Amino acid sequence: MPQYGAGSDTVLRSARRRMAGVEGRYNSLGYDNKEKIMAPFLVDMLGHVGYLSIALGMYLITLKNLWGFAFRFFGEVVWLVIGLMLGMSSLLVWGGIFMGIDIYGFMKWRKEND
Q1: Rounded to an integer, what distance in angstroms lies between the CA atom of residue 87 and that of residue 14?
Q2: Which of 25, 65, 66, 78 is most buried, taking the most CB atoms under 10 A from its CB?
Q3: pLDDT tens track, the chain, 114 positions
Q4: What is the C-alpha separation between 80 and 92, in angstroms, rounded?
Q5: pTM for the whole thing?
């Protein structure tokens, strides 16, 4: 194995400590090894529920069914929850924008049908 200088061993130990710190922070949130495996599965399943709801809502809107907005809104709420779980601002911002569009579409449609 090539030597990278006198400090290479120190760099490796430092990297191991940093990785152990990441593991420690993860465990400090209350996750054990089984929950580490289940957490991505839960987020993935929530994503499927959210997309299914959004797709169903889009389909219902094409059929001129007002319930489509409710399904789309629910799907966006699911994606906002995922955004909070993952700490992703893009999901939060765009989910909020899409929810606003859904509310606007619902209100405009009701106004036109009254």
Answers
A1: 27
A2: 78
A3: 455 555 555 655 655 555 555 444 444 445 555 555 567 888 889 999 999 999 999 999 999 999 999 999 999 999 999 988 888 899 999 999 999 999 999 899 888 887
A4: 5
A5: 0.64
